[in-house]
Amino acid sequence: MAHFVVVGAGQAGAALVAKLRALGFQGDITLIGEETAPPYQRPPLSKAYLLGEMEEERLWLRSADFYADNRITLRLGEAVTAIDASARTLTVGGETLTYDELALTTGSVPRRLPAAIGGDLAGVYTVRTLADVDAMRAEFQPGRRVVIVGGGYIGLEAAAVAAKLGLNVTVIEAAPRILQRVAAPETADYFRALHGTHGVTIREGVGLARLAGETRVTAAHLADGSELPCDFVIAGVGILPVTTLAEAAGCAIENGIRTDALGLTSQPHIWSAGDCASFPHGTGRLRLESVGNAIDQAEAVAANMLGAGQPYVAKPWFWSDQYDCKLQIAGLNTGYDHIVTRKGEGAAVSFWYYAGDTLLAVDAMNDARAYMVGKRLIEMGRSPAPEAVVDTPDLKVLLKA
Description:
Layout: E1 3-7, H1 11-22, E2 28-33, H2 48-51, H3 56-59, H4 66-69, E3 72-76, E4 80-84, E5 89-92, E6 95-98, E7 101-104, E8 108-110, E9 124-126, H5 130-136, E10 145-149, H6 153-164, E11 168-173, H7 185-197, E12 201-204, E13 208-212, E14 219-222, E15 227-229, E16 232-235, E17 239-241, H8 244-248, E18 257-258, E19 270-272, E20 277-281, E21 284-286, H9 291-305, E22 317-322, E23 325-331, E24 338-343, E25 349-355, E26 358-365, H10 368-380, H11 386-391
Parallel strand pairs: 1-2, 1-7, 2-3, 7-19, 9-16, 10-11, 10-16, 11-12, 18-20
Antiparallel strand pairs: 4-5, 5-6, 8-17, 13-14, 14-15, 20-21, 22-23, 23-26, 24-25, 25-26
Helix pairs in contact: 1-9
Pfam family, one: Reductase_C
GO cellular component, one term: cytoplasm
Protein name: 3-phenylpropionate/trans-cinnamate dioxygenase ferredoxin reductase subunit
């Protein structure tokens, strides 16, 4: 009987094995993960879970019985140490497993602050895994001082939680503004103002020089010579795809594990999906760091492992929760040259990214209607005139135009 192995028990790995069974695969399935917890949601870690509003079991993507009921062997707390692509074997826990098809859904890891500037001091944290958040939860006490390095979505979400719990929060961003890499100035302005109303200090255009402290961090020294005393630090400076295992197996690496449109790597019988995988998109290649892509790409790869032969077409979407604001993003804004602003009901607002006459993406703040209409328009390849976006009372009309 065929044996399919999936390495990486995160969102993509869990989606892939479930889809294999849903599509009728009757062979053996093994899902291997380095963490001891069963596959779980990561987005709530820096929000509801850190706030204490969600228990660990509610993070789990499937019930404890799902894997056994579906004849999926779940090996947790184990690391794959080697893959022999020619022999179609892998080594895990000192044991050699054979596979017929192998999928690498190894995900990503957070960038860490260099040890040379104090990144290895006690009290310096990243936000990526359950263990990361469990390690820092005790730090979140009212009146304590936290410095958050990085003004991207992870850093801003952590800032929102800290502010809600009564901490003194400072965010430092080396770029000229927060969200520099991922959003328009209009979106950055919205969130800067939102955080300001909750007492968060945001320092833009100034980088971290070093962290001070003997064994535990006590202050952050900035590039402009200023000093921020602190009780702990959170680094939200991006993530890196986990490619070491794939590279050792002989898979081509290009901004992650390089795959073709089906999800197959340069090695026969080895596939990849999720944060760690780059795939053809338009005239170039793309690697997406999102829950939506992890699920959709993994399910597409599962079908292709069974012979579907259907190229994966990404339909990017993202979200971020900060305070009482839900940001929903549809599309990719790369290459935009102007923004159209639409006011929604109450405080709702959306920013529509255009390149010439082409709609690329939408950022919608507490405006689910704008997000849903924008997402459908982008997926349909339709671009309404900017004045129609601003002036049409019911956005649904744009889907019929």
